[in-house]
């Protein structure tokens, strides 16, 4: 069964909840749910039980992976609200991926530049030899590490084919920028941002930046993140706490190690 459903959790109401309840009943919800379009405690319990049976985080929120397991698709923007709506960040994101650790980047590519608060010139010759500049990746141009830029081309080609309205709304706040990690609490980070190697990109939706550290994401970013996950990128919404950064996508630790094993990093 294929149906269309919005991001749902306890308190949601309407036809989309009825679709969810029907699918849960088809999957053997016990006791069977009343298909009343109200996401209450019984529906939440049924969602958690289904998530547990599928090896998903049992948070009771119908996010991308739970939708996929139920065979229910995320609506496009014309059916599911505005791309710039703020929606809760589900727990079932970045399956099998971890943020790229500083030690991985330093051990793989070395220090990219002199650590500073603002963007500075990359001075590491190995990194410089791997960079591509002003490359067209579909919705915009970027400068970044070659394998990451090639991955963006594939990601955005898939977005254009499957979600053309989302593709048309995509913009960027930058990719290559050699600097330290920017914090939200005023502290000074001792670490390089992964933008320093050109393996991370910040995405705008209809010209808007997503607010950091609010537990929410622009709907367009929520729709976009599965495309990045499929190419091995980690979504910054998964940093959690004061580090939550939903506009940020970076090559996951696993992907960088894979690039190294394939000889793509020189």
Classify the helix fraction into a percent range.
Answer: 25-40%
Distance between the termini: 47 Å
The residue ranges in which pLDDT falls below 50 over 5 or more consecutive positions are 1-5
- Average residue pLDDT: 90
Structural class: alpha+beta
Beta-strand content bin: 5-15%
Tell me the radius of gyration: 20 Å
Largest sheet, order of strands side by side? 6-7-10-9
Number of helices: 10
Name the assembly state.
single chain
CATH fold annotation of the largest domain: Muramoyl-pentapeptide Carboxypeptidase, domain 2
Shape: elongated
CATH architecture of the largest domain: 2-Layer Sandwich
Query: What does the main sheet amount to?
Result: 4 strands, antiparallel
CATH class of the largest domain: Alpha Beta
Number of strands: 10
Query: Total domains, how many?
Result: 2
Secondary-structure element order, as H and E?
A: EHHHEHEHHEEHHEEEHEEH
Properties at a glance:
266 residues; four-stranded antiparallel beta sheet; alpha+beta; two-stranded parallel sheet; Muramoyl-pentapeptide Carboxypeptidase, domain 1; 2 domains; 10 helices; 10 strands; Muramoyl-pentapeptide Carboxypeptidase, domain 2; disordered N terminus; single chain
């Amino acid at each position: 069964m294929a149906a269309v459903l919005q991001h749902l959790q306890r308190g949601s109401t309407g036809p989309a909840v009825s679709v969810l309840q029907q699918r849960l009943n088809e999957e053997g919800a016990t006791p069977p749910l009343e298909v009343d379009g109200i996401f209450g405690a019984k529906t939440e319990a049924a969602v958690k039980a289904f998530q547990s049976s599928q090896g998903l985080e049992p948070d009771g929120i119908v996010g991308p992976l739970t939708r996929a397991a139920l065979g229910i698709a995320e609506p496009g923007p014309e059916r599911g609200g505005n791309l710039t709506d703020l929606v809760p960040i589900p727990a079932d994101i970045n399956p099998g991926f971890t943020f790229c650790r500083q030690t991985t980047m330093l051990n793989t590519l070395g220090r990219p530049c002199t650590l500073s608060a603002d963007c500075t010139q990359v001075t590491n010759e190995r990194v410089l030899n791997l960079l591509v500049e002003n490359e067209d990746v579909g919705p915009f141009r970027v400068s970044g590490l070659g394998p990451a830029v090639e991955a963006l081309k594939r990601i955005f080609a898939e977005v254009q084919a499957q979600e053309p309205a989302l593709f048309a709304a995509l913009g960027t706040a930058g990719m290559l920028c050699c600097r330290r990690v920017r914090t939200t609490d005023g502290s000074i980070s001792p670490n390089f941002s992964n933008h320093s190697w050109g393996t991370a990109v910040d995405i705008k939706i209809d010209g808007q930046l997503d607010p950091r550290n609010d537990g929410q994401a622009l709907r367009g970013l929520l729709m976009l993140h599965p495309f990045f996950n499929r190419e091995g990128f980690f979504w910054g919404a998964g940093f959690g706490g004061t580090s939550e950064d939903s506009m940020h996508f970076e090559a996951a630790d696993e992907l960088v190690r894979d690039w190294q094993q394939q000889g793509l990093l020189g």
